[in-house]
Amino acid sequence: MWQLIVPNHIEYLILDPDLIIQDYSVGAQRLTGDEIPLKTGERLDQYFPETFGLEDILGSVIIGELDSFDLKAIARSPNPDTHLYIDLYFIPDPDPREPQPHLILFLEDVTSQMELEQRLVQATNENAIVIHRLQERTRELAAANQKIDRLNQQLQSENIRLSAELEILREMQQLILPKPEDLAKIEELDITGYMQPADEVGGDYYDVISMDGVITIGIGDVTGHGLESGILMLMTQTAVRTLKEIKEHDPIHFLDILNRTIYKNVKNMGIDKNLTLSILNYAEGQLTVSGQHEEIIVVRQGGTIERIDTLDLGLPIGLDDNISEFISYTRIDLNPGDGVVLYTDGITEARNGRNQRYGIEQLCQIISQNWQKTSEPIKKAIIEDLQQFIGTEKILDDITLVVLKQNY
User: Fold this and answer.
1) What are the structural domains of the chain?
2) pLDDT beyond 60 at 321
3) Fewest C-beta in 10 Å: which of 18, 44, 256, 316?
4) Is the dihedral of CA 314, 315, 317, 323 positive or negative?
5) Closest C-alpha among 28, 159, 146 to residue 92
6) Tens digits of per-residue pLDDT, 263-274?
7) pTM (2 d.p.)
C-alpha cells in the first residue's frame, strides 16, 4: 500500500471490497472507540455499525460509479456525558499498483464543529438548510482534496515532501479565493481583489460573500506566514462562511463566536498565532465595519479620502478566549461613486532598496488619483505603483488588496 499524506488531524483506514480492514493510521483507534481494539482483519461495521448494509453503495465507489461517499456525524459515547462526532469519507484507492481495488476511509473528528452548529441552530428551525449547505461545502472541499491528492503522488523523497505539502495548501488557498465571475454578479458594488503571498503559503485572508441582500467582505492578516499561518487562514475562511450560512447577523456576536472557535483550534494546535480581522457588511448604501485590522480607506466620488481607524473595533482573533467586551462596530454611509479600499500591511510596510516604507500616504495618493476609474484599473494602478516602488527587493510579507465602489 502506498504512503498516504493527509493533514495531521485526519486519520484513515484501508478497506478491501468486503469492508475488511487491511491497514490504518497510527491515531485511528482514538476515533473508532475504545470498546473494541482496532486491528486488521476485522469488518468495518464492528467499529461503525452505521456502515452495515452499505456494501452496494461502497462497491459503487470502488468501481468508480460514485466518486466518493460521505457519512457525517457518527456519534460515539464512551462516556455518557460526552459525545465524539466522526466524519466518515470514503474514496477509491487511487494507487494503480494495487492488484485488488480498495477503499480509503478518512476519519475526521468534527466534534467542535458539530457542537458549534448545535448551539447556533438551537433557536432556529433552519437545521435542514444549514446541514444541506454545509454538505455542499464539504463536497466542494472534497473535490479540491481529490485534486490535491494527485499532487501527493509526485513525491519522490522525504526531502521534497514538505515543499509538496506547502504547494497543496497554497493551491487550496487559491481555490477558495473569490472568483472574478462571482464578483461580477454583485450588482450593487463594483468590486475586485488581489492576493500575493510572500512564501509558498500566505497568511493573509480575504473573502466576499453575497447572501440574502447583504454583501460581506472579510480581510485579515495572520501573524507571520508559511504553513501554520496558511492553515489558520483556511480555518478563518471556513468559520466566517459557516456563520454566514447559519445567518448570524449581529456583528459583535459574529466575531465573538468566530474568536472562540479560532482560539480553541490555535490552542489545540499548540501554535502561537493570531490574526487581525475586519468584517464589513454592505446593504442599501450602508457599510457596517467591526473588528480590528488596518485602517479602512473610505473614498468619496471625487477622490476625497477618509481614514477609519479600527483599533477600537476589536482585538486580534485567537489571542484570548473572550474578547466580546472589546468588539464594537461603526457605520459608513456610501453614495453612488463612493467606495472603500481594504489592504494588509504587506502593502504599507513594503520597503524599497533604500529601506523606505511605501506607507499609507502613498497608497491614499494613488487611490485618489485613479478613483474616477472602475475597481479593476484602480487595483492595477495600486499594484503597479507598489511594484515600481519595491523594485528588485524581495517581498517580505503577504500582499492583499480589495477595492469596492458603489455602483450608480
Assistant:
1) 10-149 (3.30.450.20), 154-406 (3.60.40.10)
2) yes
3) 18
4) negative
5) 146
6) 999 999 999 999
7) 0.60
Q: Are strands 84-92 and 103-109 parallel, antiparallel or unpaired?
A: antiparallel
What DSSP letter does each residue of 222-290 carry, written as one string? ESS-SHHHHHHHHHHHHHHHHHHHTT---HHHHHHHHHHHHHHHHHHHT----EEEEEEEEETTEEEEE
Residue type, 187: E
Set of cell numbers at residue 186:
454583485
Burial 286-307 (b: 16+ CB within 10 A, else e): ebbbbbbbbbbbbbebeeebee
| Per-residue cell: 91 | 474514496
pLDDT at 50 (0 to 100):
85
DSSP string, 10-69: EEEEEE-TT-BEEEE-TTHHHHH-SSS---TTSBGGGT-GGGTT-HHHHHHHHTTSSS-E
Q: Which amino acid is present at 58? A: L
| DSSP structural state of residue 1 | -
pLDDT exceeds cutoff 80 at 4: no
Residue 105 is placed in which grid cell? Answer: 476511509
- Of the candidates 298, 360, 288, the one whose C-alpha atom is nearest the C-alpha of residue 327 is 288
Cβ neighbors of 99 (< 8 A, separation 6 or more) are none
Cβ proximity of 379 and 403 under 8 Å? yes
Say if residue 187 is exposed, middle or buried (CB neighbours under 10 Å; 0-12, 13-18, 19+).
exposed
Nearest to 91 by CA among 33, 145, 38: 145
Helices 127-152 and 158-176 pack at an angle, to 10 degrees, of 140
What is the b/e burial string over 370-389, where b = at least 16 CB atoms within 10 angstroms of the residue's CB?
bbeeebeebbebbbebbeeb
Residues with Cβ within 8 Å of 175's Cβ and at least 6 positions away in sequence, in order, are 144
